[in-house]
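Morning F.,

Quick status update on the modeling queue. The single chain you submitted on Monday has been processed. Sequence for confirmation:
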Amino acid sequence: MGGGYSETSLGPGVYRVAYEANGATSANRVNDYLILRCARLTLEKGYQYFSFLGDDQSYDNGGIKYLSTVIRMYHDAARGRGLSMLNAKVVANQIESGYKLKGLASQRLLR
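Structure tokens below.
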């Protein structure tokens, strides 16, 4: 991976999502951009909610920061009962607003 995001399907509605950035990018920003990609991917795949399944992986070698996680997507909140689920649209809007990302800027960042 040479920077940006990637995702790998692990099954229906289950993905490993990763984000990689240069060493000048703060750990908080890498984390936020990973969560933003999880939210956007959820919406792109036609789902409304997602939850983190764990199996997080990360490294920071000074020049590259990498973070990945596994998510499960849901069409409605009832299917993920008992799990800590996030509304993908709300999450995406909050992170985009916090970093003043809108529309095309957000899409370019996450490609």
